[in-house]
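User: Sequence recovery, please. Input:
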């Protein structure tokens, strides 16, 4: 599912010590061409933001322990991975950004891990 909101988006600028692991392999094969999935394996929510096109597009929030799959929107050239650490006083935190499009084959799976803003990591499998 893809959420669409027209308008400007405020982004947080922050330094992060997140670890990146990019593993090619068959794990994403089931996703299919032009598909992406975000899984929140830590104790915080996460989501994907699609860069490109004329309107802001993002996945819905993936709650801790949950995954959300989506089709990469037309015009996308990059995807940002975001975390939100406190639902009562939202603190959104950028984890990484990577290139992707509707032609990305066989698809992308993103996993976020950790328990707080100081304990965060992610992996990207294509």
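Assistant: Recovered sequence (126 residues):
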């Amino acid at each position: 599912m893809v959420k669409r909101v027209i308008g400007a988006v405020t982004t947080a600028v922050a330094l992060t010590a997140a670890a990146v692991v990019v593993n090619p392999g068959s794990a994403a094969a089931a996703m299919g061409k032009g598909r992406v999935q975000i899984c929140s394996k830590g104790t915080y929510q996460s989501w994907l933001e699609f860069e490109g096109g004329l309107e802001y597009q993002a996945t819905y929030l993936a709650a801790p322990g949950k995954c959300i799959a989506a089709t990469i929107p037309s015009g996308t050239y990059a995807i940002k991975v975001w975390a939100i650490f406190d639902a009562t006083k939202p603190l959104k935190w950028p984890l990484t950004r990577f290139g992707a499009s509707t032609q990305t084959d066989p698809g992308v799976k993103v996993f976020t891990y950790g328990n707080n803003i100081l304990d965060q990591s992610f992996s990207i499998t294509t």
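Residues 18-125 form a domain with the Immunoglobulin-like fold (CATH 2.60.40).
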